[in-house]
């Protein structure tokens, strides 16, 4: 089994990633996904994919942030493994890659948010990867 990870930079790669991303962001049509992704990448968003034997099985989207409490860090907005490939360690491999990539590029932290209802995901982040649950995130529709 050959596992590779790379940043997706072409529209064709983004289209290929849609089939995995829509499993997390179920409300997205391919048109809306591409429209938002083009704008997000102009604002610094980057999409990475993990491939097993040249088949895309997991994706992660992130961007750089700087603030007073986490200094220069990467924020993971999206992380999803294709449902056919879950529980095989691909999400963990992809996050480990992003940890190293962030460290090599000057990040002090890696941060992410996870829906309140995703209890098993929280255990994964805390128990398997050593993430700390340290705040609540709030939003309000405008």
Which key phrases capture this entry?
alpha+beta, 4 helices, five-stranded mixed sheet, 142 residues, globular
Structural class: alpha+beta
**Stretches with pLDDT under 50, minimum 5 residues:** none
- In DSSP terms (H or I, runs of 4 or more residues), the helix count works out at 4
Strand order of the largest sheet: 1-2-3-4-5
| Oligomeric state, counting identical vs distinct chains | single chain
Compute the average pLDDT: 94
**Overall 3D form:** globular
Q: What is the percent of helical residues?
A: 25-40%
Question: Major sheet, described briefly?
Answer: 5 strands, mixed
Report the sheet-strand fraction: 25-35%
Q: Report, as a whole number of angstroms, the end-to-end distance.
A: 47 Å
The ordered H/E elements are EHHEEEHEH
How many strand elements? Answer: 5
What does this entry look like structurally?
By secondary structure, the chain is an alpha+beta fold. Helices cover 35% and strands 29% of the residues. The chain has four helices and five strands; from the N terminus they run E-H-H-E-E-E-H-E-H. Strands 1-2-3-4-5 form a five-stranded mixed beta sheet. The longest helix is centred in the last third of the chain and has 15 residues, at 90-104. The model has no long low-confidence stretch (mean pLDDT 94).
Question: Briefly, what is this?
Answer:
By secondary structure, the protein is α+β, with helices and mostly antiparallel strands. Helix content is about 35%, strand content about 30%. The chain starts with a strand and ends in a 14-residue tail after the last helix.
């Amino acid at each position: 089994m050959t596992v590779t990870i790379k940043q997706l930079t072409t529209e064709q790669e983004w289209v290929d990633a849609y089939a995995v991303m829509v499993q997390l962001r179920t409300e997205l049509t391919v048109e809306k996904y591409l429209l938002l992704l083009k704008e997000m990448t102009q604002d610094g968003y980057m999409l990475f994919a993990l491939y097993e034997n040249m088949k895309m099985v997991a994706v992660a989207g992130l961007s750089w942030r700087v603030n007073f409490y986490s200094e220069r860090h990467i924020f993971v907005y999206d992380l999803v493994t294709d449902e056919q490939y879950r529980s095989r360690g691909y999400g963990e491999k992809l996050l480990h890659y992003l940890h190293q990539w962030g460290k090599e590029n000057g990040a002090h932290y890696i941060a992410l948010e996870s829906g309140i209802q995703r209890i098993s995901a929280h255990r994964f982040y805390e128990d398997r990867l050593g993430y700390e649950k340290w705040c609540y995130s709030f939003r309000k529709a405008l």
